Every structure is written in structure tokens, then in C-alpha cells.
Recover the amino acids of this structure.
DNA sequence: CGCCCACTTGATTAATATCAAATACTGTGG
DNA sequence: CCACAGTATTTGATATTAATCAAGTGGGCG
């Protein structure tokens, strides 16, 4: 199944017509090497990127070199839904330590999809809501949780997200993130990341390395993190009688 | 001018017809006392709240009592645009130490507004993009900046947002936030908030207290915070030939 | 007056950053 | 296949930041 369909299927069940319409929209693809910023400046703002394969990070750099990862993106995620309305990008997107494949979709194609298939429109909207919700949880994470909880929480999130789109191989997931990236995501120094990783490993909760993450004790990890998957809205499901988007759409 | 119109006018200039249509939508109002959670459970999900007067906070509590403020809302802000599509709320909204006035708007009224006035639809969408952008900056704030920078950055943000909707009285703004709230917003203990406040005061950057914040040295505060107002998108402006929302809308 | 709440202060402790160096690991050219 | 360069990881020692604990001040108000 196409990664975008698989992702949106968390929310809604699509007809084969809808599925193929979605699949057709994501034909113009390109690959980006490891640790490479995905450049936007040249792109017309009428274009939106979707990540089809691999991983990417949304990030914001401060002028003095510090930088913060704002989100990890996995296959099926949209990269910049919405930014087109704003005149200036306020953050960037880069691949992690492996290469990734993106699709470029024109504004027109998206609009066409949404006009023809309200369910798809709602699914896109659901996806942005989910992303916002994850962002809120990240604020809680860096604001309130200490090192081990924070890292455990990130791992739980990633595992559940990947699992929801069928990218978890048992409790083992691809996760091409180096310790420096973890630091940038969790707001911790690399040294402290290293020591916290050891703590989680010593407790038999995870194995991490070689671009992979293995959850050895999911309940234990979730307990440590205080993890509650409500915010991922993975169980939200479209149904015919649903109230629909708040951002109003035509009847 | 109606607070919602004033807020959306940052983005677009409205005709008097559009203005009155907006004004008419926000007639069902109610007041909420200080430090009160704005209860949603009873509300049908077809309803959306707008903050018309005063301040509010979006917040998420952990089971052990820690809680994190995710955003401050000011007059004109929408409270839960979008949450209706999800089956479960993942956070709450409360007033701060003063009371606030909200308007309840039905899903139908919003849809009607947007159908009839595409500019209003885009403006709503712009507002949610702005909110997301602010959320991203909060992640950077708690993740990367240390105490004084972090607090200074929050004050800069609030000042610019309030100023943009005409709620800054010179460099003096209403800000009914007690030190405990600052701690919950910035992820710091109350004691440390107190000491950091003293530092900013001693440097002659701000005055804070009695539900008000005065910026005594804006350039100095912005320099300390490393503040760059791009992310507020306060200068984004609608114009006829604009590409429009990425979330597709009817032609 | 006396209580509650916010704020303030001081002392101590805990968490995390920083600095510096050593040890793996990876891919490359010879 | 090896040597090497460049990264990534690990470790130890120390410094700094912020949390915690505990106690006091001060104002508003029944």
C-alpha cells in the first residue's frame, strides 16, 4: 500500500477509487541523501512535500549554532502542509543519517483530491491535527520530564507511530537517528544523551544503535515515560455521520 | 472593533460586510471566573470557542501533578479550532488570574462564514498556522534557551502579539499571570522564576507584577532572548492573487 | 486580627552541561 | 586487505544551572 494511504488509513477506510486517486497524486518523487537539508527556497509555494520512504526531521536553528528538532517525520507524513499561506518559512526540514524519498504535489492536485473526495480532505486535516497534538506533547516533554522519562517518551511515541503504519517489525523499528540528533530533539547535551541511553539499556528497556531501536520492555518503558497514547489519536476513525472538520468546508 | 476581526486583520483587510458577518457570529458569549477550567466535556463537538476578552491558557497536566502551559491565548484567539475532528481532547483550557469572556460558535455558523467569505476562511487558516508556529517556537524555547533567555523570549512574544492587536498600552501590557504560571509555561520551578525575574528587573529590562508587564528596554530584551519575530508571521498579509491555503479548499 | 496566598530569600542538593580525552566504527584510497 | 581519516560513541572530571527544602515577608480581605 502507498505510504500516504497507509498513514491516512489510521483515520479512515478508503475505497479503492480513493486509494488509487491518492496513489496517483504522489508520482513525482525524488531522493535526498543523508543529513541533507531539503531545500525549499526555490520551490514555488504551490507545492507540498510528502515523505514516502525513510525519515526526516523538522528543525529550527538559533543564530549561535544551537538547534532544536521539532518533529520526526516518518513515511506517509506531510512535510509542509500549510506553510504556503505564510510568506516566510520559520524552520527547515532535513533528512537524518539515511536517505529519504519525497513526493512533490502541486497545490492544484491537492485541491482536486480534496474537492472530489471529502473523506480525503478530512483525513489530511486529521493528519495536521495529529501533528499539532504531537507538538504539544513535545512541549510537555522538554518542559516537564527529566532526562530518562523524556527519552523514554520519545521512544514510545516513535514506536507507536511506526507501528500504526506497519513499520514496526515486532518491537524493532528503523530509527536512523544518532545521539546528537536525540540531543537536538530532547534538548539535552550529547553526553547526557549517551548516559541516559545507558540507563535505559541497563534497565533492559531498549536496545538502540545501528539505526535501529528495539523496545525490549514496552510496558516498562511506558511506565517510566508516563506515556499515554491518547494524544496520538491513533484510534480516531472517520465515520459517515461524523461532525467533520472545524475548519469549515463546503456542505 | 470586534476582537476577532482585529486579530484576523493582522492577516487580511476585510470589507465592512465581512466585518459585520464576523461580528454577528460571535454573539453567544459567556464569562468565566479567574483560575477556572473552561469545561468542554458537556459541549457538543460542533462548537468552537473564541476568547473575546481577557487571557486564557492551554495546558496539559501529568498524572503526578506536574502541569505544562502550552500556549497563552489573548483576545481574538480561537480556542479549539480543529479539536472537533478528534474523538478525545488531549489538553484543557483555563483562565488565568482574571476572568475572561468567551464566545461559543456553532460548526454550522463557521462553515457558513467560510463558504460565503473565502477571505475569512483563509484568515482562520492563517490563524491556526500562526498558532502552530508559536508552538514550534515554544519547543525551541524550553529545549534550548536557558532561564533568562527563555523568560525574555516569552515576554517578547506576548508583547508583540498583544501589540499586533492593539492591546499594548505603550510598552505596558496586561498580563494576569502569576509566577507559578510562568513556571508552568517555561518549565521552571517557581523559585527559579522568581530569581530570573529579579535578574531581568535588575538589568532594567522589564517591570512585572500586579497583572501587568512593562517592557522597559525592548531592544535589550530581544537581544537577550535572541528574539526574531518572523515566526509570529505578523506581517503576512492576504492579497487577491495569493496562492491560498494548502489545505485544499473549493475553487 | 488573622489567614491565605503570592512572593522572596537562603541553604543545600540534584540534574545536567561542559571540557577533555579515549575508544570504537565506517568508509575510502592504496 | 590494510592504513587512515573522519565520525560517532563512551568515559571521567569538573562546573554550572536549576530544583528542592525550608522559612520568612507582605499584602488583601473576611
Amino acid at each position: 500500500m502507498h505510504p500516504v494511504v497507509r498513514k491516512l488509513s489510521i483515520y479512515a477506510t478508503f475505497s479503492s477509487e480513493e486509494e488509487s486517486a491518492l496513489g496517483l497524486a504522489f508520482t513525482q518523487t525524488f531522493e535526498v541523501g543523508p543529513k541533507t537539508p531539503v531545500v525549499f527556497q526555490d520551490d514555488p509555494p504551490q507545492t507540498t512535500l510528502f515523505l514516502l520512504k525513510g525519515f526526516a526531521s523538522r528543525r529550527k536553528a538559533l543564530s549561535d549554532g544551537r538547534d532544536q528538532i521539532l518533529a520526526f517525520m516518518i513515511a506517509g507524513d506531510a512535510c509542509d502542509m500549510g506553510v504556503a499561506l505564510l510568506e516566510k518559512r520559520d524552520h527547515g526540514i532535513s533528512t537524518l543519517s539515511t536517505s529519504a524519498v519525497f513526493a512533490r504535489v502541486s497545490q492544484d492536485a491537492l485541491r482536486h483530491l480534496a474537492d472530489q473526495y471529502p473523506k480525503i480532505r478530512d483525513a489530511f486535516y486529521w493528519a495536521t491535527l495529529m501533528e499539532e497534538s504531537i507538538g504539544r506533547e513535545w512541549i510537555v516533554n522538554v518542559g516537564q520530564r527529566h532526562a530518562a522519562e523524556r527519552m523514554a517518551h520519545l521512544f514510545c511515541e516513535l514506536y507507536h507511530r511506526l507501528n500504526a503504519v506497519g513499520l514496526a517489525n515486532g518491537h524493532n523499528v528503523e530509527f536512523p537517528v544518532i545521539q546528537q540528533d536525540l540531543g537536538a530533539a530532547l534538548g539535552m547535551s550529547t553526553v547526557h544523551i549517551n548516559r541516559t541511553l545507558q540507563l535505559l539499556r541497563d534497565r533492559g528497556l531498549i536496545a538502540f544503535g545501528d539505526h535501529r531501536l528495539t523496545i525490549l520492555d514496552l510496558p516498562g518503558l511506558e511506565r517510566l515515560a508516563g506515556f499515554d497514547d491518547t494524544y496520538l489519536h491513533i484510534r480516531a476513525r472517520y465515520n459517515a455521520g461524523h461532525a467533520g472538520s472545524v475548519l469549515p468546508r463546503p456542505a
